[in-house]
Amino acid sequence: MKDSFKIPQFLLRFALGITFLTPVSDRLGLLGPAGTGNVEWGNWDNFISYTTTLMPFLDRPMVNVMGGIATVCELVIGVLLIIGFKTKYAAIAGSLLTLTFIVFMTLFVGIQKPINFGVFTATAASFLLSRIPNYEWSLDNFFKGK
Q1: What is the C-alpha end-to-end distance of the chain, expressed in Å?
Q2: What are the extents of the domains in the chain?
């Protein structure tokens, strides 16, 4: 049977990878200062202040740790998806991470925020990517051929 997922899975991997890396770039200030263009946070402090609203039951130092963990996870997942290494596991991790975001955003700021940020789409797309049987143009595929 012909693999009809070659280009769509590559585009989905790349789009999801960028989706995970862009917020990381934003909170590290790489996209510019807050309030310019489509910059949401512009720096780490603004990101942690927002994250505090999602975790009001934690004190700020612990929110800082949780924000750091989320940022590292997003960075790793984004890179793994783009290069196509351990793609299935990165996609599952991405789906679980964004599902966690949905829960906290919905509980503490309302359902509209995860909808506006496309978190439902990222969760579903990550889960879908994890179910694709073969990842063309990926390190997974390269190592499978060895």
Answers
A1: 22
A2: 6-144
